Amino acid sequence: MEYGGIFVGDVSSKKLVKTRMAKSVLDTGWHMLKTQLKYKANARSVVYLEVPERNTTQTCSSCGIISASSPKGRAGLGIREWMCECGVTHDRDINAAKNILALGLERLAGGIPTL
Fold first, then answer.
1. Residue 31 lies in a domain
2. Between β-strands 89-91 and 81-83, what pairing exists: parallel, antiparallel or unpaired?
3. Do 40 and 28 belong to one domain?
4. What is the DSSP string of 50-99?
5. What does the alpha-carbon distance between residue 77 and residue 115 come to, in Å, rounded to a whole number?
6. 3-state DSSP call for residue 24?
7. What is the pLDDT of residues 17-70, one digit of tens each?
């Protein structure tokens, strides 16, 4: 076994379907992807945990603050790279992935039960 944990954001496909992104959400099959990940993780005794995804693209994965320069709201969706006040430059998706990983590890260390 190479990996001991899979952490994913708590994206709700039911909520996203009610937005203007409905077709894209339905096409990608978010719910089925999460169901399959959970199934495969359980079959291999790997921890699967959904963590709150809120502000993971805006929070600096280095210093932990939400700086004024971080992308915000729908207007910020086009911003793919940004620099934090601490001087670190972030790719939006990689930064979010680092934050989701940190949240997952934090929940495991705190004894949050996995499902």
1. yes
2. antiparallel
3. yes
4. EE--TTTTTB-TTT--B-TTS--TGGGGG--EEE-TTS-EEEHHHHHHHH
5. 32
6. helix
7. 666 666 666 666 777 888 899 999 999 999 999 999 889 989 999 999 998 888
